[in-house]
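This protein record is not my work; I was only asked to verify it. Would you go through it and say whether the fold makes sense for this chain? Here is the record exactly as it was handed to me.
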Amino acid sequence: MDRYLNQAMDYQDIATLGIAFGLGLLVGLQREVSGKKLAGVRTFSLISLLGAIAGFLTRDLGNPFILPAFALALTCILYIGNLIKIKTVPEPDMGQTTEVAALLIFAIGGYLVLGHQVLGIIAGTGMAILLFVKERLHGFIARLKKKELDAIMTFAGISLVVLPILPDRSYGPLMVLNPYNIWLMVVLIVGISVVGYFIYKFVGQRVGIISGGVLGGLISSTATTVSYSRKSTESHAVAPMAAFVIMAASSVTLIRVLIEVGIVIPEKFSALLLPFATLFLVMTGLSLGMFYLLNRKGPEEEMPEPSNPAQFKSALVFGLLYGIILLAVAFAKKEFGSGALYGVAVISGLTDMDAITLSLSQLMKKGTIETNVGWRLILTAALSNLVFKTLLVLMMGSRALLKWLAVSFGISIAAGLLLIWLWPANWHF
């Protein structure tokens, strides 16, 4: 006993108690505001403190059964409280959210002492937010369509089921095909598309044509080009609006490229940021010019609703394309040198920017190609993609739309070529 009495005050333990009290207060506030009688601010604060004290006792006395014993006692108290509610309330609410929240905040209080405090704080705050958005979450789920549920389940399947079982080792003649790495890139691309789709679901139809371009670039700029090219044939007046949306979506594609590069090779992100940001500013300036000069008097059109962004077939096709490009880039580099990579970039960029971006990012990460060469290859693919979109407009869109995009894409391609040719190697953060 003297050993504990003579210990100096541990300010870290005091801070832990404060965190436990704050998390209990936060969750209890939400429960009380929602009208729950079983437990409110005071009860949840006390339960969280009880968890922390039980954690201290478990730690200081070296007895692993103390925390479970307190948890069992709390469970009995909640059970008795529910029995009383059933017998005294005519039509009792039999939901178990408050009871589960009480047990979880107790566990978090104990984990703050025995585990990692940051994880405990994240769990407690996340629970409070989840409880707060309950009604909105239920409303969102009620509005989900079948294709949106398919997208969620497909993404869960490819990320939580398929990815963990794949081997993390290289195969193939050039040892560049890593199944785990390839599928991880599939998860990344599908994830970005799903996030863009659900942003559209929340705000896309309310914000107007600007969101059509931004969200189109996040989901798929090629699909956006196809949709608006077809729309432009319905009326001559639609062409300016369609040109703006396609141009804006193509601009946002550069941001998507930077996001992908930043995730795969964050250590080399600074070397790619300035040239891509420069081209983005040029294309954004052109988009804004089109918006103010042409689109202010145009018709207000909603963004065509995109299809399921997480189709399993599309994920498989992307994974296959990504692997093929990895092999093509490695083969061209080995047999013909870096100059041949520009041809691969042009061909790959015609249809899919993501695959060539991620392939080159992986090779830059491994040091197979230099960063100054890598970003130029990615930018070459981006310019090739603009040419491909121009061909799509030529085949599917109106002549008025083609005129606007021929000018804006032409300026963008010229600016990109100047960046590839003239950008100094030492210009980076």
About this structure: The chain has a mean pLDDT of 80.
